[in-house]
Amino acid sequence: MQITFIGGGNMAAAIIGGLVREGGHQIRVIERTEARCAQLRSEYGVEASTAQPEAFGPDEVVVLAVKPQQLKEVCVELAPRLQGALTVSIAAGVRVAALSRWLGSERIVRVMPNTPAMVGKGISGVYAPPGVSVADAASAADVMRAVGEVVALAEEGGIDDITCVSGSGPAYVFYFMEAMIAAAKQAGFDPMTARKLVVGTFEGAVALAAATDTEVGTLRANVTSKGGTTERAIARFDAEGVREAIVAGAMDCRDRSMEMGETLSRD
Ligand SMILES: NC(=O)C1=CN([C@@H]2O[C@H](COP(=O)(O)OP(=O)(O)OC[C@H]3O[C@@H](n4cnc5c(N)ncnc54)[C@H](OP(=O)(O)O)[C@@H]3O)[C@@H](O)[C@H]2O)C=CC1
Ligand SMILES: O=C(O)[C@@H]1CCC=N1
């Protein structure tokens, strides 16, 4: 597939990394600075330039991967060059109606990816509005399937929902890992060993959860011996409202996605 990324920052690089690992794609990136282009060329072996091409081919997939606040300006520049190419936006918050207005195109699919795409372990939500062909929806899903799993979303609001779980979710996990690394250091481990212990613990726990249908709560209970050590840790988490804080944070994230949808999709 011929895929052009407009914006080659953190999320685009994660998808590009995954696509390059998979192989068989022609990838081009448009970035703002020559320095970033040079970095993308050397890290991923992709084509990169600071100027948008004069025109895109009808079979090309154009991935919008700039910050939501940068999107309108990018779309306005892109509109006369698109020539009907399929556009896939990975931006949080900005709605299809606004993208369609700015691009003068209805061939638009929204995707909410996540950064584990870099190692082929992404999970993405894909929303294709009514009117987008089955083939275009499949092309957008294929790009994301190359870097992980895909969940089809029936409504555009599903993008807000999935953002607060899998889109932003890796940051919640890294936050928890940071806290556990701090704990490991406090317990006396050097930084390298602390990181190794924590990453290994996450890797093992995730592999265990993925390998079974057993409820995650049961897996947790299996570690928690009555009157033992884990029970004491979980009691402190419960007393401090850790679980409630995580749920509330995720709901705030979803609210922010909806709020961005209101403000950034207005004009
Ligand atoms: N990071 C994540 O985990 C996820 C991000 N997303 C979405 O992905 C999008 C990108 O996010 P992220 O990668 O984190 O952001 P970044 O800031 O890392 O990447 C955006 C890139 O686009 C460049 N850029 C800005 N304007 C232009 C332009 N006119 N032409 C070409 N390139 C341009 C920026 O350059 P400069 O820095 O010089 O401005 C920057 O390198 C956002 O819309 C976000 O909502 C979705 C899911 C997860
Ligand atoms: O924080 C953000 O706005 C983006 C969208 C999902 C993950 N990162």
From TrEMBL:
Catalytic activity: L-proline + NAD(+) = (S)-1-pyrroline-5-carboxylate + NADH + 2 H(+); L-proline + NADP(+) = (S)-1-pyrroline-5-carboxylate + NADPH + 2 H(+)
Pathway field: Amino-acid biosynthesis; L-proline biosynthesis; L-proline from L-glutamate 5-semialdehyde: step 1/1
EC numbers, comma separated: 1.5.1.2
Enzyme category, top tier: oxidoreductase
Keyword 4Fe-4S: no
Domain Pyrroline-5-carboxylate reductase dimerisation: 158-260
Subcellular location: Cytoplasm
Residues bound to NADP(+): 6-11, 65-68
Record keywords: Amino-acid biosynthesis, Cytoplasm, NADP, Oxidoreductase, Proline biosynthesis
Any GO BP: L-proline biosynthetic process
Top-level division of the source organism's lineage: Bacteria
A GO CC term attached to the entry: cytoplasm
Pyrroline-5-carboxylate reductase catalytic N-terminal domain sequence ranges: 2-93
Entry keyword Oxidoreductase: yes
Gene Ontology terms for molecular function: pyrroline-5-carboxylate reductase activity
Broad class of where this protein is predominantly found: cytoplasm
Protein role: Catalyzes the reduction of 1-pyrroline-5-carboxylate (PCA) to L-proline.
Stated family: Belongs to the pyrroline-5-carboxylate reductase family.
Record protein name field: Pyrroline-5-carboxylate reductase
Source organism per UniProt: Gulbenkiania indica
